Amino acid sequence: MDVVTIEGNEYKVVAQRPKSLTDKPFTYCPGCNHGTTHKIIAEVIDELGIQHRCIGIASVGCSVFSYEFFDFDFISVPHGRALAVATGAKRMRPNSVLMTYQGDGDLAAIGIAETIHACNRGERVTCIFVNNAIYGMTGGQMAPTTLLGMKTTTSPLGRDAKRIGWPIKMSEMLAPLPGAAYIARVSMHDAKHILKAKAAIKKAFRAQLEDKGFSMVEVLSNCNVNWHVTPQEGVKFVEEHMTKNFPLGVYKDVWEDEKAAKQTDKEKG
């Protein structure tokens, strides 16, 4: 156990910043879940011992700041092109561990083609998809994942399905594709779900490390600034509304599929 001395007093260190994070303080808005998401990703990378192999892809949006906080190589890419660049980097450096960190406007709007095709090809990359149902950095516009009735700067009367369409559900869309190895949706609204999110992220990296295929963890998060609510109200909205529109759970698990296939073969044999 590490011990530090402060003003002549010795203290045992029981918690500290993960090694895969820099010492720069987070600059995200107060109450935003990006910081917590960064922390659990860094903890997973430390536990897997892969920091020296990691390459992160910083997309456009609030996620673009991630290269300031993770302590490994990062590539900053044009809007929507994170998974295209990740594909090239992984193929050029196959022993590297590629992670994209993307928001819903980047991944599910301008970058939806790259997302679908990277998954369908089974690219060995891990995508962390932070879904806060709005464009957080550029002014609070409606995103592909904005809930029905939700007011934004471009849907001031609330999203209307007949006129604008329904919120897109990326996890459900990607899970049936043959290249998908692990697809899960988690939430950051309380400590129990944060621990579940960390376990899902760890499994997503394992899918890449074990050469299983494409993996994505969709993280339901808040954007209290653009939702015009307090941080407490934002977390409550995630729990009461977002999780109902975007059900939590594992949508594709290649290990479970392999286990089921073996069981079926055993029963037939």
Describe this structure in words.
With 269 residues, the protein is α/β, with parallel strands linked by helices. 41% of the residues lie in helices and 19% in strands. The protein has a domain at 32-129 and 165-220 and 247-268: 3-Layer(aba) Sandwich (Rossmann fold), CATH 3.40.50. The chain has a seven-stranded mixed beta sheet with strand order 4-3-5-6-8-7-9, sandwiched between helices. A hairpin with a 2-residue loop joins strand 1 (3-6) and strand 2 (9-12). The longest helix is centred in the C-terminal third of the chain and has 19 residues, at 191-209. The radius of gyration is 19 Å and the shape is globular. The mean pLDDT is 94.
Structure summary:
The protein has 269 residues and is of the alpha/beta class. The protein contains 11 helices and 9 strands. It has a domain at 32-129 and 165-220 and 247-268: Thiamin diphosphate (ThDP)-binding fold, Pyr/PP domains (Rossmann fold, 3-Layer(aba) Sandwich).
Mean pLDDT rating: 94
Under CATH at level 1, the class of the domain at 32-129 and 165-220 and 247-268 stands as Alpha Beta
How would you characterize the largest beta sheet? 7 strands, mixed
Could you state the order of secondary-structure elements as H and E?
A: EEHEHEHEHHEHHEHEHHEH
> In CATH terms, what is the fold-level topology of the domain at 32-129 and 165-220 and 247-268?
Rossmann fold
Which overall shape is indicated by the principal axes computed on the Cα atoms? globular
Low-confidence stretches are none
- By CATH, the superfamily of the domain at 32-129 and 165-220 and 247-268 comes out as Thiamin diphosphate (ThDP)-binding fold, Pyr/PP domains
Tally of separate helices: 11
Helical content, roughly? Answer: 40-55%
Number of strands: 9
Structural class: alpha/beta
The end-to-end span amounts to 53 Å
CATH architecture of the domain at 32-129 and 165-220 and 247-268: 3-Layer(aba) Sandwich
**Widest beta sheet: strand line-up:** 4-3-5-6-8-7-9
Radius of gyration (Å): 19 Å
**Share in β-strands:** 15-25%
